[in-house]
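// run 5 | inverse folding | seed 20
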């Protein structure tokens, strides 16, 4: 999962991560949440014109 985030040119959604890794969206969200809590992954919000904001995940750059 971290490799998929690190290789991405831009932040990814949980759906994007799930597709790249080959797991379900719900599983990706659970793992990403843990990685955010551990400080390994950063989370941001993207607001569209309507609907819910989209969570975008990226590997923390050092």
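// decoded
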């Amino acid at each position: 999962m971290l490799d998929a985030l690190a290789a991405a040119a831009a932040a990814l959604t949980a759906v994007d991560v799930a597709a790249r890794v080959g797991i379900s969206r719900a599983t990706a969200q659970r793992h990403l949440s843990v990685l955010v809590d551990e400080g390994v992954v950063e989370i941001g919000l993207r607001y569209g014109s309507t609907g819910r904001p989209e969570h975008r995940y990226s590997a923390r750059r050092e």
